[in-house]
Amino acid sequence: MEEGDVKTVSKTDNYTIKNEELSEKGEKEISWAEQHMPVVSDIKEDFESEKPLKGLNIGCCLHVTKETAVLMKTLKAGGASVALCGSNPLSTDDAVAASLVKDGIKVFAWRGLDEDEYFWCIDQIIDSEPNITMDDGGDFTARIHTSDRVPEKDIIGGTEETTTGINRIESMSKKGVLNYPVIAVNDTMTKYLFDNRYGTGQSTIEGIIRAGSTLIAGKTFVVCGYGWCGRGIAMRAEGFGAKVIVTEVDPIKALEAAMNGYRVMPIEEAAKKGDIFVSATGNKHVIGKKALENMKDGAMLANSGHFDIEIDIDYLNKIAERRTEIKPNVKEYKTKDGRKLYLLAEGRLVNLVAANGHPSDVMDMSFANQALVAKWLSERKNEEELENKLHAVPAKIDKKVAERKLGALGIEIDSLSKEQKEYLEKWEYGT
């Protein structure tokens, strides 16, 4: 993309967004999120007094939502210089972007990016010379490793927010091409057990209902993938009264789905039965040619994985004789054999494109992890250097986030007595 080609209203060296006049609206949205993110807000207060990130540049490629804004303001409160771009072409909230710019954060993001614009925005974050990177999906990390725009030796570490990105960075690590350590925030228990399950479960259903205006009850609902996101989607679809089918390639996950009461079968067989399909795997063409050929008239297709590759949209275009945009986020494909298939949100993240993404309450824990890991990375200067591979978040951070969330919810729990601690530490005790 050439420098003069940006199709936006507001552009300077420090930001390129849709319209800075939307800042007041964005400020209200962020205020709402802050009210529902007590753990991150508490960390922000600590950061304001401690300044643990002073002198650091933090580059972020995340969904530009009101929840992300709370994290960005927290990092800035900690003394960091912060730059942000979107991790998906259609997930940016333009009002939030405008408000962040007003708060002194560099933002290169607007809703509706084409591919060239998307990577141009990432390049602007690379040019901010980050010492710490925060990624969601792995595009930022991969771009740094295929670009000579910044010396990688200046990056002390990075974080990854989602399963798709973890898979990509694990692959980079195994192949020996990862040039700085990355911390798997996605794999913390306070992230995947809650964000992936409850957040994705609720927001995906919300996106489908908003886009399709459809009744879930009584429908046959096919969930492709039974990871933590798939578990959440299946659980919420069942709660709405759907008859849930799960498709899987992992025998253990498939067995778990069956034990949880769901029908389990191959996607090509499920395609004949389903009314609504959701992919949540992080893999390519999970809903592929045979499945698309087997689907009945009126089937609705959605994706909740990070990239728009889980549904074979190219083949859907190939078998369609006519394509009609019914309304925003709903496209009808009239196939050559007379069926009508409906693609939601262009095959991108339906929960962010057609809805507002995860609720603030659950993102509170995910972004608390991000903030505390950034602090932890900044404090490691005099410790043994981390290897250039994927690392787990220290257990003490995960536990601290859980403790703070319980406190914010007003929930008290038991603690071990001296006698109980001694019992757990002695192998001699038995029956």
From TrEMBL:
Cofactor(s) it depends on = NAD(+)
Q: Which GO terms describe its biological process?
A: L-homocysteine biosynthetic process; one-carbon metabolic process; S-adenosylmethionine cycle
The keyword Hydrolase appears for this protein: yes
Gene Ontology MF terms in the entry:
adenosylhomocysteinase activity
The record's Gene Ontology cellular component field reads: cytosol
Q: What range(s) does the S-adenosyl-L-homocysteine hydrolase NAD binding domain occupy?
A: 196-357
In this chain, substrate is annotated as bound at 65, 136, 161, 191, 195
Major subcellular location class = cytoplasm
List positions binding NAD(+): 162-164, 196, 225-232, 248, 283, 304-306, 351, 358
Cofactor binding remark: Binds 1 NAD(+) per subunit.
Recite the UniProt keywords alphabetically: Cytoplasm, Hydrolase, NAD, One-carbon metabolism
Compartments (UniProt record): Cytoplasm
Catalytic reaction equation(s): S-adenosyl-L-homocysteine + H2O = L-homocysteine + adenosine
Database matches in Pfam families:
AdoHcyase, AdoHcyase_NAD
Specify the pathway.
Amino-acid biosynthesis; L-homocysteine biosynthesis; L-homocysteine from S-adenosyl-L-homocysteine: step 1/1
InterPro entries in alphabetical order: Adenosylhomocyst_ase-like_sf, Adenosylhomocysteinase-like, Ado_hCys_hydrolase_NAD-bd, NAD(P)-bd_dom_sf, S-Ado-L-homoCys_hydrolase_CS
According to its UniProt record, the EC number is 3.13.2.1
Q: Which family does it belong to?
A: Belongs to the adenosylhomocysteinase family.
User: What name does UniProt use for this protein?
Assistant: Adenosylhomocysteinase
Q: Which organism is it from?
A: candidate division MSBL1 archaeon SCGC-AAA259A05
